[in-house]
Each structure stands twice: as C-alpha cells, then as structure tokens.
Design brief:
Elements lengths: L2 H17 L5 E7 L4 H14 L14 E6 L10 H10 L20 H7 L3 E9 L3 H5 L10 H9 L5 E5 L21 H7 L2 E5 L4 H6 L7 E5 L8 H4 L8 H12 L8 E7 L1 H7 L3 H24 L4 E7 L2 E2 L3 E2 L31 H12 L6 H15 L15 H14 L1 E2 L5 E2 L3 E7 L7 E4 H12 L6
Parallel strand pairs: 1-7, 1-8, 2-14, 3-4, 3-7, 4-6, 5-6
Antiparallel strand pairs: 2-13, 8-13, 9-12, 10-11
This protein binds zinc ion.
Length: about 475
C-alpha cells in the first residue's frame, strides 16, 4: 500500500467513524423469562386467534436479530438479578445480587449514564418497581429481596418516570394501604418533596390515564400493592394501566418540548417469567402479547423519529423450560387456551378449600375443563390429594411450592395444548433479541448478555460497569 492509499483508507475509516450516529431516543425492552418458545407460542396463538397465519409479533418484525447467552458469575442458570445487572451494566455477578460485582464493587448502569448525560429517563415494569430487573438499573444491593431498601434507592435515583406495581414498599402502615415496610418511612411523601407527581394504587389509575404531563415534570406511579395483575386477569377489569399505556404515557412525558437530549426508557414485561414459573401457558402468552403491544407503541414513536430512535427487545433468561410439543405427538392445540379465563398463580391458587365438587365447577367455568378424560381426572385428583395434606415432605412437594390444586389444572391445560415444562425455575438456554433503528445492526449475531449492554454503551458513548 502506498502513501496515497493509506491516506485514502484512513480518511474512509474516519468518515465511517463520523457516520456512527448516537440515538436520541432509546427503548430497552426486557422480556423476563421470554425465551424463543415463549415468543413463538405467543405468535402462533395470535395467528390462530386472528385467523391470519401471516401475522407476526411486532418484535418479530424488527430487522435485526441476535441470540444471547444468559449465565451468571456463579451459575449456568441465571436469576433475574444477575441477568438484570448484566443487561444494565455489562458485567457478570452472582445470582441474587443487584448492581454489584461479586466482590461488592458498585457498577454504573446504562440508565444512570443516560441520566448523568442529561437524557430523560424512565423505568417501566409490570412487576413491583423494586423487583430484580428494574432494580438492576438503579440499585446496588447484595440481596434482591431487600426491596424496602431498594425502594429508597428509587426515591433518590432522580429517574424522571417510574411506573409499575409495588407501592407496598413505598408507603408505610399509617397510610391505611397494604405496606411491607418495617419502619414508618413514607417514601411517597419523600417523592412528592423531590418534585414527583405520584399515582398510588388502583384508585389513581383513571387520574393517571387522563393526566397530561407538562415539561419538566417527574412522575411516579405504583398502581398495585405488589406486581401489576397478569394481563389475562386484567383484561376484564382495567383497574391498572397496561404496559403499552405505561409506555405511551412515558413517551408523552419524556419527549416533551424542551427535552433536547432525548430519553432512555427501560421497559420490563415481568410477568411472562411468573407465568413460566407457574406452568401457566395462557398467562404466559397473554403477557408476552401485552409486552408486544408495548413494543408496538414504541414502534409508532420510531416511525415518527426513525433517524433518532433505537429500540432493543432483549430477554434476561427463559423460564419453565417451555417445550412446544410433548410425547410422541406432532401437533400443538392452542385453541384449548382460548377457554382459559384466569391465571394460575394469582387467581387459581387457594380456590380449592377441600370441596372437590365446587373446585370442578370452578375449573369448568374458568378453564373450559368440563369434559375431563380419565387421565386428566387422575392428574387433578392426585393434586387435590396432595393439597388435602397439611404438611408436605420435600418428596411430596413436586409442585414448585405452588398450590398443588392450581398446578394440577396448569398441567392439564398444558397437556391439552401439547406443551410441556421441565422446571419451576429458569433454564440456561439462549434467548432471542431484536432491534431496529439507529445502530441497531450492532446488536445482531451471537452475544453474551454483558455484550448487549456494552454494545449499547458504545453506541451511546456511556461508561458502564465497574
Ligand atoms: Zn423468574
């Protein structure tokens, strides 16, 4: 290569560097427990319900696709704290640990860097705000279950928009609402003093829906004592906002005029994971679809600002070992799931009180189980026999610490759909990732979860990690 060629080459390289754009608006979606099977079964179900085999999930229409490994520092099977920390800060830590290296060193997250660079920030989730995934973006705590302390870190975080469930860690017992605080701290008043407009409990949902944000405002919304309801249970009541509605309000707040530096919004579809733990196919699909509706909301924004927006849809791990297919059969029967009217974890546990006739009537009405086969009846009867015992030995507790009666129903429904589960916990399989927008192509290919965060940091010119 001669001198001229070298000059030409280096100027081409410089031009290439100069063209690398930084997105002004970032949506970072995390489907908790949303593996390939969860995405696929939700898409098949949607196609069947809408009678359109060409229908795709919005997240499956994004042009860039990647695959992500999920192991933590101390296990090949991650939990959501270690995986959240990897996706937020690009580092491996131990299961249960939030925002710290295994040796206790604090790490800096993408969201903190966005805030410190003057971007508006948002944390949105369908779980408690203090739950592992959202907490990983703002908290430093060796114990993910220390949610009262994590709540205090949210108050001090300066994040412009926080919306989800879990007010029980922010209010005290004197409030008259359900509180899990062991002290008398009133964090809602602290939030108000810090300049937040607050929306607490289901009663504030309508006010929130009609609320028109003004420039410079900060908003905190916790619409339920614990997690937001499963989308499946919520559909008939609308007592709390949907994930898509939370994202929509976030966009109207964080993109107000005067916000020159854009926003960074983390959005977790958190109950996909819970449905996986409880072997609840219908709730799993419904919450995946609810998250996909939130992605659609972000895509509508993207279409107005295509040169300034980046959307990444990631997952922290797979939950349940959901298998599409069971036994020697070559089919799925997803039409069976359309009969399901309620979740296993939140609505079916504890409904069996010893009255078997009443239980069969309820599951007939709520799950379409009016025509149980001999084998299905056997599964339910076995579950009810176990439920009748007061103290289970570890050997007898094969029900993931759930109410055996509810899990018996979950297994009959799963088998009718020809879907099987390998665990009540997480699995170590790779998870899909999708992206669109500014520098989205950098998220393609096979990556570790830490590389997802590092890629985003590189694009945003952020310093994350330790
Ligand atoms: Zn989980």
């Amino acid at each position: 290569m001669n001198q001229g060629q070298i000059v030409l080459l280096s100027s081409l390289l410089l031009a290439g560097t100069a063209q690398a754009a930084t997105p002004k608006y970032v949506f970072y979606f995390i489907g908790d427990g949303m593996g390939a099977a969860q995405r696929q079964v939700a898409e098949y179900y949607l196609q069947q319900q809408k009678k359109d085999p060409a229908l795709r999930l919005a997240m499956d229409t994004l042009p860039v696709t990647g695959i992500t490994t999920t192991h933590s520092a101390d296990s090949l099977i991650t939990d959501s704290a270690a995986a959240g920390t990897a996706l937020a800060a690009g580092v491996k830590t131990n299961n249960g640990v939030i925002g710290l290296l295994p040796d206790g060193t604090k790490v800096t997250t993408l969201l903190e860097q966005a805030r410190d660079h003057g971007m508006k920030t948002g944390i949105i989730t369908s779980t408690r705000l203090t739950h592992a995934t959202p907490a990983s973006f703002i908290s430093k705590n060796p114990d993910r279950d220390d949610e009262n302390a994590i709540a205090e870190e949210f108050v001090a975080s300066g994040v412009d928009y926080m919306a989800g469930g879990g007010y029980r860690h922010f209010i005290n017992k004197a409030s008259g609402l359900k509180s899990k605080r062991r002290d008398d701290k009133d964090l809602v008043t602290a939030l108000t003093k810090a300049g937040y407009t607050t929306f607490i409990s289901e009663k504030s949902t309508q006010n929130f829906m009609h609320y028109q944000p003004k420039a410079g405002e900060k908003v905190f919304g916790a619409f339920s004592a614990s997690h937001l309801p499963y989308s499946l249970d919520e559909a008939s009541k609308q007592a709390t906002p949907s994930l898509a509605q939370l994202v929509d309000k976030g966009i109207s707040l964080l993109s107000l005029e005067g916000n020159k530096k854009g926003f960074f919004m983390m959005v977790e579809g958190g109950r996909i994971d819970h449905a996986g733990h409880a072997h609840d196919v219908a709730a799993n699909i419904d919450d995946t679809l609810a998250m996909d509706n939130a992605v659609k909301t972000a895509l509508t924004f993207y279409q107005k600002h295509p040169k300034e927006t980046l959307i990444v849809v990631a997952a922290d791990h797979e939950t349940g070992g959901m298998g599409l297919g069971f036994g020697k059969n070559y089919y799925l029967k997803l039409d069976q799931l359309a009969k399901v009217k309620q979740s296993i974890e939140d609505k079916t546990q504890k409904i069996y009180t010893g009255d078997r006739a009443a239980f069969y009537t309820t599951i007939g009405q709520q799950f379409g189980l009016t025509d149980l086969s001999a084998n299905e009846k056997k599964i339910i009867e076995q579950a009810l026999d176990v439920a009748d015992k007061k103290d289970l030995t570890p050997d007898e507790n094969q029900w993931g610490e759930y109410d055996p009666a509810a899990i018996g129903v979950a297994h009959v429904i799963s088998q009718r759909a020809n879907i099987y589960w390998t665990t009540y916990a997480h699995t170590g399989v790779q998870v899909p990732l999708s992206a669109i927008g500014v520098e989205a192509q950098q998220f393609g290919g096979f990556k570790d979860n830490t590389e997802v965060a590092k890629t985003m940091a590189k694009i945003m010119k952020f310093n994350i990690g330790a």
